[in-house]
Amino acid sequence: DDGLTQDQQALLDRARAVAEAAAAQAAETDRTEQYPWPMVARMRDAGLMGLTIPREWGGPGLTYFDAALVIEELSKACAVCGRIAVESNMGALGAIMAYGTAAQKRIAADLVLAGDKPAICITEPGAGSAATEMATRADRRGDGWVINGEKHWITGGGISRLHLIFARAFEDGRELGIGGFLVVRSGERDPAGLVIHRRIPSMGLKGMPEAEIRFRDLRVADDMLLAPPGGFARGFGKLMDAYNGQRVGAATVALGLGAGAYERALDFARTRHQFGRPIAEFQGLGWMLADMSIRLEASRALVWRAARSAGPNGFPDRLAAAQAKVMAADAAIEVTNAALQVWGAAGYSRENPMERILRDARMFAIAGGTAQVLRTQVAEQILGRKLPQTRDGFLRQAAADAG
Ligand code: FAD
Fold first, then answer.
1. Which pLDDT score is estimated for 104?
2. Distance from the CA of 147 to the center of ligand 1, in angstroms?
3. Which of 366, 386, 387, 389 for a ligand 1 pocket mutation test, highest count of atoms within 8 Å of Cβ?
4. Within a 10 A sphere around the Cβ of 141, how many other Cβ atoms?
5. What is the DSSP letter of 83?
6. Model confidence band, residue 6 (pLDDT cutoffs 50, 70, 90)
7. Is 169 helix (H, G, I), strand (E, B) or coil?
């Protein structure tokens, strides 16, 4: 807890109390695959939802770093709870708090502080890493928009109320660029045209639904367009800046999973005896534990640096966020896998948490920018040049530079 203020220590203590309850229900949430509503209520009552919401909108106005402290603590106990904390502090919420109108901020703040985990809808069956190739479209009709298309792997699909939907905007047949549109599910029924088509069964983090969502003539009023400064043309880039916050959040969940597995491996190594001695005395295990601690400290250093890097737009630095996520996501897979090994057969048993933690850790190198795509982002920034990924990308860029 080095270098933390008294307020941050107090925040951590509050998070630890909730994490204890989170740990007690994590196995059940994994088994039943039900969204942990009772934990949401506890997190809300402890003031852990919407930590980053400014005071003028009813939140405590804390920083991304403060939120990261909470997210790591919750994720050590229950990564689903950690992810709820990410999405109620970063991602869609960050974008709305940065670029939204007063009315939009009011809606988002009220929903999140009441316990909603907003959904961010970017990925489509045909547009994963190539997100800008999305086909979902929003056509200008009268004084609003009509959205058609489909998204998949939408975290929270079916439980989230607030949705930030990305779509290609068209007016009079002309494409304007990619914009963000806010849609709220009321809880009782979906807005006409927003269909939660199905839940996608997943490997880990099973308490968090991942869904396919379809838009069929979904009407969005003009005042629910999330308009970044610079308009549609540069809009997607600006809106995606908010994603740097989400990336730091995802990196923090990965870090928490690794740290939780490491602590459990240390305990086990001290108490399990073979050959008449604690297994911790075997050098083969000691070096594994040492490597785990090194990877985790390196991850934490990058995550903290990224979380503290918030620039003038309020979002963490793009390079620092990508570096932190690559490091923490890769480390989480290695560390949780090694920790299971320390537990031997007990680690492989579904009666113990190690196999769940390993499954939960697997996604962070995939979602929110894969480990490969983020390495390319890092390369672009350290090289100071664009690295287009389409076959004709460099030719188009050369033409644009010339003309
Ligand atoms: P693809 O893009 O098809 O990639 C397949 C493989 O090719 C990967 O290994 C990838 O790294 C590699 N690859 C692709 N392009 C390149 C390249 N240029 N260079 C090198 N390698 C490349 N999306 C949302 O919009 N909202 C969400 O809430 C959300 N939540 C998610 C939750 C989970 C658990 C998961 C698994 C995904 C989620 N996603 C979400 C989607 C996620 O962002 C995408 O899965 C991700 O962007 C990768 O897209 P893809 O799966 O289609 O893989």
1. 98
2. 23
3. 366
4. 12
5. H
6. very high
7. strand
State the pLDDT confidence band at 108, using cuts at 50, 70 and 90.
Answer: very high
Contact call for residues 12 and 73 (beta carbons, < 8 A): yes
Give the pLDDT of residue 33.
Answer: 98
> Is the Cα torsion angle 223, 127, 209, 237 positive or negative in sign?
negative
Residue spans of the domains in the chain: they are 6-113, 119-230, 236-383
User: What's the CATH number of domain 119-230, 3.40.50.300, 2.40.110.10, 2.50.20.10, 1.10.287.110?
Assistant: 2.40.110.10
Topology of 236-383 in CATH?
A: Butyryl-CoA Dehydrogenase, subunit A; domain 3 (1.20.140)
Q: Is the pLDDT of residue 130 over 70?
A: yes
- 363 in contact with ligand 1, CB cutoff 6 A: yes
CA nearest ligand 1 atom 17, residue: 373
Atom of ligand 1 at shortest range from CA of 127 = 52
Q: Which of 86, 370, 374, 391 to mutate to test the pocket of ligand 1 (most atoms within 8 A of CB)?
A: 370
Q: How confident is the model at residue 235 (pLDDT cuts 50, 70, 90)?
A: confident
Q: What is the pLDDT of residue 1?
A: 53
Q: How far apart are CA 46 and CA 42, in angstroms?
A: 6
Residue 59 is given by DSSP the state S
Residue 313 has pLDDT above 70, yes or no: no
CB-ligand 1 contact for 128 (6 Å cutoff):
yes
Say if ligand 1 is within 6 A of residue 246 CB. no
Q: Cα(362) to centroid of ligand 1, in Å?
A: 13
